[in-house]
Design goal:
single chain; 79 residues
């Protein structure tokens, strides 16, 4: 019997890269400063991307979560 493992959601490297990109984007919209708002936005955005990836992976595996939306909305106001 062979056991295989997979990453659920974003990998650590993907999470880090997305966080950097989102923080840069949020800082630019805040005038270039690493404000608390920019940091919070970046963390929330990447967490949402991670959750969306998990949902997609679970759906591909045929796992349905009760109460989950059929199609998650895409895009954020700061995109």
């Amino acid at each position: 019997m062979t056991t295989t493992f997979t990453t659920l959601g974003l990998s650590e490297q993907e999470y880090r890269e997305e966080l950097i990109n989102e923080l840069i984007r949020a800082m630019r919209s805040e005038g270039g400063s690493p404000t608390i708002h920019a940091i919070a936005h970046a963390v929330a955005r990447v967490t949402e991307l991670d959750h969306l990836r998990m949902g997609e992976q679970l759906a591909e595996a045929g796992i349905r979560i009760a109460g989950a939306a059929e199609a998650a909305p895409r895009g954020w106001p700061m995109d």
